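thought: user wants a sequence for this fold. calling inverse folding tool.
action: design(structure=
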């Protein structure tokens, strides 16, 4: 009789264990989804633009191509009195993927570039995250505006578009080096727009030198959205 009770208790404990394991594995976030990588390794067009990125030229001539940097595909951009970007559409919920990481390297920055003034609003490197509702977070490597500066876009954009510009790197001290930037875009959106973020609908990398008449050169690679900051 005692043996039967022990066996019965063991069976009950086994089912409790299995049920608990199933609940844990089924819980949201129990198994992290893989990061979303948006690189530059797609098929290249005759113009040198990797799919599915699209080239947008605002002024002057664009110089953009994919090269290998330490064996990894990277986008090389060069600007002389011009403004152009590469952008791509995609959908993502930043509540699920709050962190974005990218690597960039500046070789030359526009000498008088300063995002705070329309007449000098040129940056060597810019990374945009566009959200539904026509709102954008713009992360820039600026020549003169101090790191940590947050401002409204100082040049005209289409009506109804709201852009918050965040200077995440300033000056020439680290030119020639690959630097990795990590931001919590969920927190940034809430902080700067004072509301819950809608879905991301696209990203853009950009270079401007048309306002100061100068030049810029640099690289982007490894744009990754992830659930954690690691």
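)
observation: tool returned 230 residues.
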């Amino acid at each position: 009789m005692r043996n039967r009770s022990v066996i019965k208790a063991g069976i009950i404990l086994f089912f409790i264990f299995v049920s608990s394991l199933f609940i844990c594995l089924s819980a949201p976030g129990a198994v992290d989804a893989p990061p979303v990588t948006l690189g530059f390794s797609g098929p290249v067009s005759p113009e040198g633009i990797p799919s599915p990125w699209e080239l947008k030229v605002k002024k002057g001539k664009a110089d953009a191509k994919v090269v290998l940097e330490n064996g990894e595909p990277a986008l090389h951009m060069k600007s002389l009195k011009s403004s152009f970007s590469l952008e791509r559409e995609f959908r993502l919920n930043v509540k699920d993927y709050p962190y974005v990481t990218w690597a960039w390297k500046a070789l030359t920055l526009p000498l008088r570039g300063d995002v705070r003034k329309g007449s000098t609003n040129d940056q060597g490197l810019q990374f945009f995250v566009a959200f539904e509702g026509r709102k954008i977070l713009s992360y820039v490597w600026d020549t003169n505006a101090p790191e940590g500066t947050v401002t409204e876009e100082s040049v005209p954009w289409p009506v109804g578009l709201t852009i918050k510009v965040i200077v995440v790197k300033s000056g020439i001290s680290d030119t020639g080096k690959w630097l990795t930037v990590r931001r919590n875009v969920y927190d940034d959106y809430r902080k700067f727009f004072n509301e819950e973020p809608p879905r991301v609908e696209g990203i853009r990398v950009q270079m401007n030198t048309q306002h100061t008449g100068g030049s810029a050169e640099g690289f982007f690679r490894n744009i990754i959205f992830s659930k954690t900051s690691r």
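thought: summarizing for user.
answer: Here is the designed sequence. The domain at 35-226 is CATH 2.60.120.260 (Jelly Rolls).
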